């Protein structure tokens, strides 16, 4: 606790408390909460049976394709289909490295081989770059180039 104010609060007392808080905040480095756990590098998705969940490491995901209320998650040599919308999965995946490039596709930027016009090559798969996502995708690529 930095300060304690009682009602009615005179403005000069409020201002004093604000200045006290600001000076303390400037003196201390940004603190990470003690209980903060590192973000997981995996997720669990529902499998084909009722109580089955599959653990998928984010680093293994090549791309994700939306199929109405299902998504196909493509890993090297494996395709996993689960009942989930692409929008929900997009909110769950860390950004970066994942980026939505089309109304039906989310890709791992780390796995991109080449961008040719409106086509993104990932191994032997050609993924379309949607007009809606094109500008933000290319901006992000340019920013990565600068680093």
UniProtKB/TrEMBL annotation:
Q: Which SMART domains match?
A: LytTR
Signal sequence interval, chain numbering:
none
Q: Boundaries of each HTH LytTR-type domain copy?
A: 45-116
Looking up Gene3D superfamilies in the UniProt record yields: LytTr DNA-binding domain
Question: What InterPro entries does the entry give?
Answer: LytR-like, LytTR_DNA-bd_dom
Q: What is this protein called?
A: LytR/AlgR family response regulator transcription factor
From what organism does this protein derive?
Answer: Pontibacter silvestris
């Amino acid at each position: 606790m930095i300060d304690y104010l009682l009602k009615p609060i005179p403005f000069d007392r409020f201002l004093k408390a604000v200045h006290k808080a600001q000076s303390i905040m400037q003196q201390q480095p940004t603190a990470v909460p003690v209980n903060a756990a590192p973000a997981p590098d995996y997720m669990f998705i529902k499998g084909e049976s009722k109580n089955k969940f599959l653990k998928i490491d984010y680093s293994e995901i090549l791309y994700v394709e939306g199929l109405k209320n299902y998504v196909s998650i493509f890993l090297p040599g494996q395709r996993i289909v689960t009942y989930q919308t692409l929008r929900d999965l997009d909110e769950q995946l860390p950004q970066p490295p994942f980026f939505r490039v089309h109304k039906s596709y989310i890709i791992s930027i780390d796995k991109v081989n080449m961008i040719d016009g409106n086509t993104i090559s990932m191994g032997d798969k050609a993924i379309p770059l949607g007009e809606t996502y094109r500008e933000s995708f290319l901006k992000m690529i340019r920013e990565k180039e600068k680093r």
